């Protein structure tokens, strides 16, 4: 496109224009070529990202997820979007791809903010890419309706340490109580 602009400008006799004398012909040609190239339409890719709270968890842990920035999903207000996890580095093209694990349904409000919750699935520990299924987004995302929206880490370990530590504490207290009762009976002293 730029060579065409140069040919047009050469034959338009810009050499005598006051602006070309002030800034120089080369500067004017470069500026015009850059302007012509800069105004060419290009495909627009949507970019919306999600914040996971916590950013990683063990299986069974509740996770809150919301869009980053105000109105990140403004183009799809008042809709529900399905959220998936896939092994990091994979490039699924449809929701039927075998590597996708459905995890949540996001709700997009009037302001274009997405929110949802999910329970961390029982997957192999490691990093996963999060993908949102958004058919209306295809017009803004070079024809893709399955969009990468962040990363989430599935961690190794027990799901709920609070519950486990509570059970362990209760077992220790029960053992201590039983031991105390047995000692008092053996010694013949009553409480």
Give a quick rundown of the structure.
This protein is an alpha+beta fold and 191 residues long. The protein is 30% helix and 28% strand.
Relevant terms:
Immunoglobulin-like; 8-stranded mixed sheet; 191 residues; elongated; single chain; 3 domains; alpha+beta
Topology of this protein?
Layout: H1 2-11, H2 18-23, H3 25-38, E1 50-53, E2 56-58, E3 62-67, E4 80-87, E5 101-108, E6 114-119, E7 126-133, E8 146-155, H4 161-187
Parallel strand pairs: 2-8
Antiparallel strand pairs: 1-3, 3-6, 4-5, 4-7, 5-6, 7-8
Tell me about this structure.
- By secondary structure, this protein is an alpha+beta fold.
- The chain folds into 3 domains: 37 residues, no CATH class; 106 residues, Macroglobulin (MG2) domain (Immunoglobulin-like), CATH 2.60.40.1930; 32 residues.
- Helix content is 30%, strand content 28%.
- It has an 8-stranded mixed beta sheet, with no helix packed on it.
- It is elongated, with a radius of gyration of 31 Å.
């Amino acid at each position: 496109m730029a060579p065409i602009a140069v040919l047009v400008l050469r034959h338009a006799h810009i050499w005598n224009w006051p602006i070309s004398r002030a800034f120089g012909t080369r500067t004017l040609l470069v500026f015009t070529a850059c302007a012509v190239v800069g105004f060419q339409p290009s495909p627009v890719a949507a970019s919306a990202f999600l914040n996971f709270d916590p950013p990683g968890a063990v299986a069974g842990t509740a996770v809150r997820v919301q869009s980053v920035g105000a109105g990140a999903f403004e183009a799809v207000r008042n809709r529900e979007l399905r959220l998936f996890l896939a092994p990091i580095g994979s490039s699924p093209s449809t929701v039927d791809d075998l590597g996708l694990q459905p995890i949540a349904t996001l709700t997009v409000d009037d302001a274009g903010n997405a929110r949802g919750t999910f329970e961390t699935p029982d997957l192999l520990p490691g990093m996963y890419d999060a993908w949102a299924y958004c058919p209306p987004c295809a017009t803004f995302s070079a024809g893709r309706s399955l969009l990468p929206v962040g990363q989430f880490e599935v961690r190794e370990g027990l799901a709920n340490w609070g519950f486990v530590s509570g059970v362990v504490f209760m077992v220790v207290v029960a053992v201590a109580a039983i031991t105390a009762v047995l000692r008092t009976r053996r010694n013949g002293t009553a409480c």
